[in-house]
Amino acid sequence: MKILSVVGARPQFVKLAAIADAAAQRDDVEHIIVHTGQHYDAAMSDVFFADLRIPAPDVNLQIGSGTHGRQTGAMLAGMDEVLEEHRPDWTLVYGDTNSTLAGTLSAVKMHLKVAHLEAGLRSFNRRMPEEHNRVLTDHAADLLLAPTEVARDHLAAEGLAERTIVTGDVMTDVCLRVAESVQDTTPTLPEGIDPTADYAVATIHRADNTDDPERLRSIVEALQALDLPLALFAHPRLVARAEAAGIPLAGGAVHVGNPVAYPELIGAVQRARAVVTDSGGLQKEAYLLGTPCSTVRTETEWVETLEDGWNRLVPDPAELTDAVQRPRPTGERPPYYGDGTASLRSIDALRERA
Q1: pTM of the predicted model, to two decimals?
Q2: Residue 31 annotated among the catalytic residues of the structure
Q3: Residue 45: is its pLDDT beyond 70?
């Protein structure tokens, strides 16, 4: 059986690490990796393949950045030739990026079967490009690999129950494995932060938080006002928007660093007192690692993390400082996202339906 994985962005590389490992454990599976080039610099792409021991991509479309339409269109044009050459039994798409949608549309128009990993997530916020990508992908795909029962319920409500199976979350597989491997190492933090003392970790990159200069300034000022040092791993989008608006990111509690490799991020988060983010993946990783999270959004796809206060939605930057410094939750963290074997269950689901 031949599986062709389509990836292009950092969260997808992490999921791919689990799937590639699981595929290698099945003798009857040939796994082709296509990198669209959506994240194309070394910090956001190459380093993840190296540090997570992912096989080098068989194809790199090298699409690069651009508007959503231009980027998705360029990916579609490149994917047609790739799929025509390989004719996979399954085209496997991941998450909710433009790469996800392009891989899906190209495959279904060639009458090739598509499976969507991490299906059924919903923010119910149609301002998010990711929400359009995930909804369109779920309705076009032949098999929906849902990470949680909540995701299954979303798909059932949209009439997609017969295509859905719950596999657990492959991000859990990788996160737990990496956390164990780095638990005895010193976290990689920006200069000026003592890794043995209390600190927070932050990532901010979504358009709703970066494209409005006033909102971005209010978020940055709230972070700078914290009573504990904060490691801001600055996404290229954040850096560009802050520079254009004349907003200095460093200052007060904020120490700025470049994006780090996934193992280094996990090492930093599992020792942090708090996390601040607008990322989908990092909310869940903080939950898995037992680090309280403040999410700078009005909604989350990972609603389970909100129970018992491990994650808190903070849409108003004026409330961010207090939210980050809240007492550590004392409630349990049920294993909503699986037991670390979701990737094998996903591969076996494809084998059974090839």
Answers
A1: 0.83
A2: no
A3: no
